[in-house]
Amino acid sequence: MFAARLPKRLPLRVLPRARPITTTCSRRSDALFVHRDTPYNNPKIPFEFDAENLTRAKEIISRYPPQYKKAAVIPLLDLGQRQNKGWTSISVMNYVANLLEMPPMRVYEVATFYTMFNREPIGDNFVQVCTTTPCMLQGSTDILNAVCEQLGGIKPGQTTKDGKFTVVEVECQGACSNAPMMVVNDDFYEDLTPESTKKILNAFTKGEKPKPGPQSGRQTSENSAGLTSLTTKPYGPGEFCSPEFS
């Protein structure tokens, strides 16, 4: 009688097969975010601004109210990086923190967040190739490959054996109308082709500085197909007005 009251066993339900999860492969950054003491980068290595840069630093700090002088951390880190042969060492960061009376950790946070600060030594010429969408659609992959090939087969994040070039792959540099482009030190080189890219690098190899800007003949970012608007003389004051207003 007790068994008669038990519910009937329900049939087993066949669950649908789980959909496989697909992911893209991970790609490691070539940037350094965690400090590890090395013989060339440790707090025991002295650093301080030279006389010229110290004067410049004091002028920058004076732009801010005394209680907000920490706002000068970015320009001072940039100044230190330029004096330190293009990279921001732990000693540079500690010096800037002391100068601005900031906790060192706050300076570390800035230096690791902004990609403009290089945490490792770089070559004499710092080549930054943009590969963001607008540049990629215009062939930035070919430009990056041309750079790496011209520099002896190095990969992004590496420096040539002679120490003359470091190449990195970067996000948008703000010259999308002139894509593809790259930055060498402080100068923009735009409207690139693999051929013009190699020509530019050859000039730097010889110690020359090629003319920055578009390499296609454009002056700035005007339409490469020619003028399509504003093709007639603009009218002057009073033209096309009613007679009483002429």
From TrEMBL:
Ranges where the record places region Disordered: 204-246
Alphabetical list of Pfam families matching this protein: 2Fe-2S_thioredx
Keywords in alphabetical order: 2Fe-2S, Iron, Iron-sulfur, Metal-binding
InterPro entries: NuoE-like, NuoE_dom, NuoE_N, Thioredoxin-like_sf
Biased composition (Polar residues): 216-232
Cofactor: [2Fe-2S] cluster
Keyword Isomerase attached: no
Family, similarity comment: Belongs to the complex I 24 kDa subunit family.
PANTHER family: NADH DEHYDROGENASE [UBIQUINONE] FLAVOPROTEIN 2, MITOCHONDRIAL, NADH DEHYDROGENASE UBIQUINONE FLAVOPROTEIN 2, MITOCHONDRIAL
Listed NCBIfam families: nuoE_fam
The name this protein goes by in its record: NADH dehydrogenase [ubiquinone] flavoprotein 2, mitochondrial
The species this protein was found in: Hohenbuehelia grisea
